[in-house]
Amino acid sequence: MTDQTTRSFQMTGFDKPLVENVNPVPKATGTQVLVRVKGAGICHSDLHIQDGYYDLGSGEKMSFEGRIQFPFTPGHETTGDVAALGPEAEGIEVGINVVICSWVGCGECAHCKQGDEHLCSAPQFIGVNKPGGYSDYVVVPHPRYLIDLGNLDPIKAAPMSCSGLTTYSAIRKFGKILNNVPLVIFGAGGLGLMATGLMAKLDLAPPVVVEIDAAKREAALKAGAAVAIDPNAGDAMQKIRDAVGQPVLAILDLVGSSDTAKLGLALIEKGGRMVIVGLLGGDIRISVPSLPLKSITLQGSYIGSPAELRELVGLLREKGLPDTPLDRRPLDQADAALSDLRAGKVVGRVVLIP
Ligand SMILES: [Zn+2]
Ligand SMILES: [Zn+2]
Hints:
11 helices; 17 strands; binds zinc ion; 24% strand; alpha/beta; Rossmann fold; globular; 2 domains; 354 residues
């Protein structure tokens, strides 16, 4: 790479490895901002994009066909410093460290108008619909998608725009109930460890974590979980109830499989809420009368809003980043890192460093 070129690690089609392409550094035009990448987190969604679909259960798939333009540069968890401003970009300075809010909407629909750009049905998400952070540089359409990191370490902060925001938004959906009962978290992958770390930053009780993998249970305890339980152990249900110590009213499912959703429905008690975030895939059967009789809420949660990301960064600038495990790798190992994540060999979050 020279000063005038940028390396990008790109998918050339579904189900294909990443390849390195070198191109001229893009110019920021209009309101655009050019960001020099310092950290690019690898998210499970990047694997779904590589696969080309989400598994909806019962053999059904939701395809990405037609939604991804190849060659495609993934990476929606990006931090960096502002390298250049387009002539109409205002309110941001060259050189400051920023996290990129990748959740760019159409700006026109009802969701976008009320600030929920992450729910836009014509999204222009960076690293999904537009070139992302597996690169030396990223173009951001407007300064409003950049949040000043202050003194936060941009490498450690990279996961905030997806993993951090997704878990923060999901935790907030439980409201005040978490002041009175501990949260049960399914899954201690990147999201589970992030959620566990954020609970302390939000002054909430240490969560009860449920995870099949022994190394990840260990990591959850280190990240601040009260207890980490193996759901395949015979007495798992009772262990979870004992650990909660009162009715199970708050479950955060970060796995999102048939097994975890079934387990959650079996555990949740009257007036409880289960928020499902994980996208592993599958389906469940729900007894309809159990919803009114138990007065339970099943809720999906997808990423979070740009305003929530600002709130989160504000909180962390005050309280520091959660101490979740990071696996730092050079950008040119992007493909190997993606394969390791697929093979379940990653504890915590991989951050690629150009
Ligand atoms: Zn993500
Ligand atoms: Zn929109």
